[in-house]
Amino acid sequence: MPQVASVGILVADVVAYPVSAYPERGICVHVQRMELHVGGCASNTGLALAKLGIDTVVVGKVGDDPFGDFLIHELNRHGVRTEGIRRTREAGTSSTMVMVHPDGERSFIHYMGANARFSPDDIDWSLLRGCKVFHLAGAFLMPAMDGEPAAQVLQQARAMGMLTCLDTTWDATGGWMHTLAPCLPHLDYIVPNYGEASQLTGETEPERIADRLLDAGVGTAVIKMGDRGCFVKNRQQAFHLPAYQVEVVDALGAGDCFSAGFVAGLALGWELEQAARLANAVGALCVTQLGATSGVRSLQETLAFMRRAERATPAPASGSTHQQSHER
What we know:
This protein is an alpha/beta fold.
């Protein structure tokens, strides 16, 4: 029986490294590496969860094409359950050309493909019975799911006893809060990155961002802040956790792997701060290798990395975390 359902966008990533500049028209430039990787929020998070030892089912839609074959094969190879992935001949598998700059930052050319056709009707709820966490990954890149349909899906997941969690992407349509608002009252957790969360709320301070999300109905806001770690707030507590320091090779997938670490903590029944520390560690290890999930380690290896890192860098004083006993 799966512990987590990772539901949403599935993408095949063609990754080139390093790319210092886009080539001029008609010019060919060479890179050191070009590889095909699993990408997309739901597939990245699901694969990372499986590497952490969490029994996970991925739910989404791919085309009836070689990229779809690749995604399903790779997810299966890592122990992810793929019975929830639907295939279609009406669109190709979503794919992205990823150009990794020498400092690890990336640029993208994206084809939405089958993700644009993924809808609530594609979810086989019988496969999700007994899951502890329902993670909807890739908001704003699923036009047949985003908004009210996603709200209904989250409501159904809660009715089945699952914790609900949602991860966002950049909203190229500009809908932001107008699109996402119906979902927020049905979310136990939301895990956007700082830029997306700021666009959603119109705020720039992490605590004010979190307050806006809580006021809109979210149970706990977890703001991913890259090399600044994460900020977490609910109606009982608020805290910032610094990032683990590593050498960055490729930042691709770091946010999805952070989400995987956090969701793993939820599935294991860990306390909120413990889950957020694991999230920081999984996100940090992700960026040490090329590709969205290549750097993810087993739970035991990740915990060992955390112990080594925390011995090398003393934990911040308790004053950096403030508790709130009052209800907002």
